[in-house]
Protein 1
Amino acid sequence: MMLWPRMALENRLSGEDYRFLLREKNLDGSIHYGSLQSWLRVTEERRRMMERGFLPQPQQKDFDDLCSLPDLNEKTLLENLRNRFKHEKIYTYVGSILIAINPFKFLPIYNPKYVKMYDNHQLGKLEPHIYAVADVAYHAMLQRKRNQCIVISGESGSGKTQSTNFLIHHLTALSQKGFASGVEQIILGAGPVLEAFGNAKTAHNNNSSRFGKFIQVNYQETGTVLGAYVEKYLLEKSRLVYQEHNERNYHVFYYLLAGASEEERLAFHLKQPEEYHYLNQITKKPLRQSWDDYCYDSEPDCFTVEGEDLRHDFERLQLAMEMVGFLPKTRRQIFSLLSAILHLGNICYKKKTYRDDSIDICNPEVLPVVSELLEVKEEMLFEALVTRKTVTVGEKLILPYKLAEAVTVRNSMAKSLYSALFDWIVFRINHALMNSKDLEQNIKTLSIGVLDIFGFEDYENNSFEQFCINFANERLQHYFNQHIFKLEQMMPKACIQNTLAS
Ligand SMILES: Nc1ncnc2c1ncn2[C@@H]1O[C@H](COP(=O)(O)OP(=O)(O)OP(=O)(O)O)[C@@H](O)[C@H]1O
C-alpha cells in the first residue's frame, strides 16, 4: 500500500481524491495497481470462494496473549483459545493472568529442559507456561522483597490441583537448582499423602480434591527454600458415609484394601470393598420403573477407575508417607484407624421390642473388631453407639437413642474420626515441613503461597457442602475482580505520574 502516491494523483479522475493506492504483485512478477473499491471487490469474491470451499481457508494466527487480540469479544476469545488448544498450546496469557485448558493427556512440556528455559525470563518472551508464572512470582519476591501469592480458580476437574503441583515443582526446582535437599523432598512428598486422604473420584473428576489448601513455600532472602506450611480448609466429611452414584469414598480406603499385605489383612480384619457399607453404595442406582415401583439396577461398579493401579498407588502412598516422616508404627496405626471406620459403618441397629423405642445392635460381632482396632473398651463403644448421656439439675441421665438417631450417631462418629485423622496428618506434615531455621528470629523469610480450593460444583443433589464450596468460589472470584479492577485503576494514575515526572 502506498500513501499519497504520485501515480494515484496523476491518474485520478476528477472528483476522486486518492490518498493511497493498492499495489499488488501478479504471478508473473508484474505490478498491478488498483483502487480501494476494486480491492474490496476482489476480497469479497475471495471470501465467497473460500466459503464454498474453492479456495483453502487461511491459516488462522493465534495470539498467546488475549490482550493482543485486535477485536476482543467472546467469539474471538474462544476461537483463539480453541485454535491454540488444537495445536496443543494449553496456556494463554491475559496480561499477567494465565489461562490453562485441561488437555486430559500428558504433554511433554514439564521436563527439566522447560524448568531451565523459563528460569528468570520475562513474561511474554516465551510461549505461555505455568512455569513462567512460578518464575515471575519467585523473581518478584526476590527483587521486591515482598511475599507473593498465586490464586488458582476454575470449576471442578479443570486442572487446578495439577497446576498447583506443577507450580510447587517449579518453585522448589528454582530454589534448589539441581539439588534435591531434604525440605524440597518433603514438600513434594506431602502432595501424594494429602491427595490419598483428601481426594476422591467424583462424577466430574477421578481425582477431585475434597478439601481446600493453601501451600506456602518459605524462602531465605537468597532464594533458597527454608520450609513450607499447608493450611487446609473444609474437608467434605459427608462423603465418608454417603456417595452419589458413580462417586467414591476417599482414595486411601481403596488403596488399603487393594494393597495391604496378607499379614495386614488379617490384623485389620480387611474384607472386599463391596462388603463395606461406606464403600458399596456406588454400585446401586435406584431405577424408577413406574410410579409405585422402585428397583435397584445393578450398574457396573466403580471400585477401580480406568488406568488406575490401586496396589501401586498404595506402595506410592507408603513411600510418600515415609518421605514426610511417618514411621512404620504410625502408618500401621493410621491404617488400623481407617479399617475401624470401615467396620464401624457396617454396624446396624434393630428395635429391641415392638413396644418401646430402645434399640440393639444386630451384628454385635463387629463390636470387638472395632474396639480392637480403635484400642477402646468394647463396653464403652457399645454405650457410645446406643445411649446418650445428659445432665439435668444434679442428675445424670442415660437415655437410649432412637433407631434413626443411632444411625446418625454412628455416622457422626466415623466422620469425626476421619476428620481428626486428616487434621492430624496435616499437622504432622507441617511439623515435617517446618524448618527450625524458620523459627530463628534473625532470619528474614519471604514466601510464595499457592491457593488451590475445590472448584465450582453443580450436582443432581447439592448438599450444604456444595453450598460452602460454591460460596467460597464466588468470594474468590469477587476478590479477584476487585483486585484486577484496582490494578487497572492504578495503572492510568501511574502513567500520568510518570508522564508528569518526565
Ligand atoms: N496440565 C495437565 N496435563 C495433563 N493432564 C491434566 C492437566 N491438568 C489436569 N489434567 C488432568 O485432569 C484431571 C483433573 O485435574 P485436577 O484434579 O487438577 O482438577 P481440579 O480443578 O483440581 O478439580 P477439583 O476442583 O475437582 O479438585 C487430572 O487428574 C489430570 O488427569
Protein 2
Amino acid sequence: MTQQFTLAVDVGNTRAKFGVFETAIAAAPQVVEISAVRLADTEDLAHELQQWLTNVGVSKIRCAIIAGSNPPARDSLLESWPLANSPPRLIESHVDVPIEVDVDEPARVGIDRLLTAYAAHRLFAARQTAIVVDSGTATTVNLVTSDGVFRGGSILPGLRLSAYALHDYTARLPLINTDNIGQPVEPSDAPVPGRNTDQAIRSGLFWGQLGAIKELQSRLSFAAVEQFSDRTAPACLLTGGGGRQLSPYLSPSVYIDSLALHGLALLSTSEKAVNSGNRG
Ligand SMILES: Nc1ncnc2c1ncn2[C@@H]1O[C@H](COP(=O)(O)OP(=O)(O)O)[C@@H](O)[C@H]1O
Ligand SMILES: CC(C)(COP(=O)(O)O)[C@@H](O)C(=O)NCCC(=O)O
Ligand SMILES: [K+]
C-alpha cells in the first residue's frame, strides 16, 4: 500500500483551511493536523502555510491539493506557493470532482459545496441520503442522495455575515460578535425573549440560523423521498466555522472539522492525482 502525506488547502471567504492527511490508495484519509487562518488576519497566506507546516513538523509532503470558494485569495496563494517540490493540484471545476451534479448549471456550484458533498457520500454516509450543512461565510445546506448524486441545496447568510448586515444596514443596531469557533452556544448566550437589543440580535441570529437550517433539512429530507425516491434515513453532516456552535442543537448530526479538506485528501488518492507527478 502506498502511504503518503497529503497537504490539502481550502480557501474560503473568511478563512483558509490547511490540512495534512495520511493518505493511502483504497483507504479513508486520516487527519494528521488541521488548522485555519483568518484571511483578515494575514497579508501572506503562503508564509502562514509554510510556518504552520514547520510548526506541525510535517516535512515530507508527497502531494498537495487546493481548492476554494474564494478564487482571488486562492490564486494569490498559488502565485507564491511555498513548497517548490510539491506544486499543488488545483481543484477548480465540477469536472475535477467525481460526483454527478444534478443542477441547472453544474459549473456555477461552489467547489466547496461539491467537495463536502463528495466527502460526505464517500467517507461518512455511503449508503444514505446526506444533508450537508456548511456554516461558513454563507451557510449552505445541500442534498446528496444515497446514489451519490449532488442534488443542489440552499444558500443563506452565515452567522457573522448576518451580524454585519444588521449593523451595516441599520442606523441603530450594534455589531454583535458571533465569533466562537470551537465553543458550543449556551441558551443563556442567546436568551429568548431577548430583553435588550444585544440579546434580541444574539437570539435572532443564532436561533434564526438554527431554525432556518432545520427547516431546510426537513424540506430536503422530504425532497429526497418525493423527488428522488430515496427512502434511506438521512444523515446530517455539519461543518464550517459556525458548525460547532450549531451542532448540539442539530441532533442527530455529526460535526466534521473542515469537511472539504477530507474531500480534497480523498481526491488526492485518485488515479489522476497519483499520476500527476506532484511528488516532493
Ligand atoms: N473567530 C471567528 N472568526 C471568524 N468566523 C468565525 C469565528 N468563530 C466562528 N465563526 C463563524 O465561522 C464562519 C466562517 O466559517 P469558515 O468555515 O471560516 O467560512 P469560509 O469557509 O467561508 O471561510 C463565520 O461566518 C462565523 O459565523
Ligand atoms: C455559497 C458560497 C459563497 C459558500 O462559500 P463559503 O461561505 O463557504 O466561503 C460558495 O459556495 C459560492 O460562491 N458558491 C457559488 C454559487 C453556488 O454554489 O451555486
Ligand atoms: K466553505
Protein 3
Amino acid sequence: MHSGPINRATTNGDHTVLSVLAYDYPPEKLSIYLSDDGGSVFTFYALFEASHFSKNWLPYCKKYKVEPRSPAAYFRSMPKPFDATHSSHLASIKKLYEEMRNRVETATNLCQIPEEVRDQHKGFSIWDDGYTSKHDHDTILKILVDGRNKEAVDVEGYRLPTLVYLAREKRPQYLHNFKAGAMNSLLRVSSEISNGAVILNVDCDMYSNNSQSIRDALCFFMDEKKSQDIGFVQFPQNFENTTKNDIYGSTLQVISQVEFHVWMA
Ligand SMILES: O=c1ccn([C@@H]2O[C@H](COP(=O)(O)OP(=O)(O)O[C@H]3O[C@H](CO)[C@@H](O)[C@H](O)[C@H]3O)[C@@H](O)[C@H]2O)c(=O)[nH]1
Ligand SMILES: [Mn+2]
C-alpha cells in the first residue's frame, strides 16, 4: 500500500488499510505494508488507530458479511441491519469509527499527537530525534501487529494479519523514483518479514471494494492451464464523484456495467 506525499493520504489512508485488513483470507497468510512517502507521524498515528479499530471491525465484517469493507464506504451505503442485535452492533461500531476518525483529524489539524497516545507506542518518538524532514530521514520501520504473535488477536480471539509501517530512507541529494522506488523498498522489507509469494498493490487513495479480491486474483495464478502465462492481474477501478458526463470515461461503464455484469451473472 502506498501513501503518497500528499496530506489527503494521511487522513484517508485508513479506508485502504481497513478494507485490506478485512479481506476474507486466512490472517496468518496475510501481511499488510503501508509505505509512507510523506514520512508523516500523522500517517503513522492513523495506522496505529486503524490497527486498534480493526480488532472490532474485522469480527464485525466477518459476522455480518460486510461489503465493502472500507468502514467509511460501508456506513455511507446506509446498511440495513438484519435484526435488533445487528442494529445495536452497527450503531456501536459506527460510533467507535467516528471517534477514531475524530481523534486522527483533531491530531492532524492541531499538528500534535496527544501525550497519552504517544505513551502507547515508542514509534512516535522517532519523529522527535533524528528526523529532519520528509526528504531527509533514516528508514522508519515499525511492525504494528506481528501476526506470528499468538496474542495478536481481535476482540473475538481471531488472529490478526501482520501490519507494518514503512517510511523508506530519503536523502535530498538522491532521486527516490516515486511509487516505483516505494515498491522496491516494500519488496526488500517484506522479503525479510513475511516473504509472501504473491503481492497485491493498492494505492492509498482507494479501497478494496470486494472482500474476495485476493481469492479472485489467486484463481488466475493457480489456473491449471493458463497460470504459466500470467504475470500479474489488474483489477478494474471504480471511481466516485465523477462528473455527470464523465468525459474521461472514468467509470468504465462498458466494462463494469456490461462486460463484468455478464461475466459475473
Ligand atoms: O512519490 C510518490 C508518489 C506517489 N506514490 C503513490 O503512488 C500511488 C499512485 O499515485 P497517485 O497520485 O494516486 O497517482 P494516480 O495518477 O491517481 O494513479 C494512477 O497512475 C499511476 C501511474 O501514473 C499508477 O501508479 C496508479 O496505480 C494509478 O492509479 C499512490 O498510492 C501514491 O501514494 C508514492 O508512493 N510515492
Ligand atoms: Mn490516485
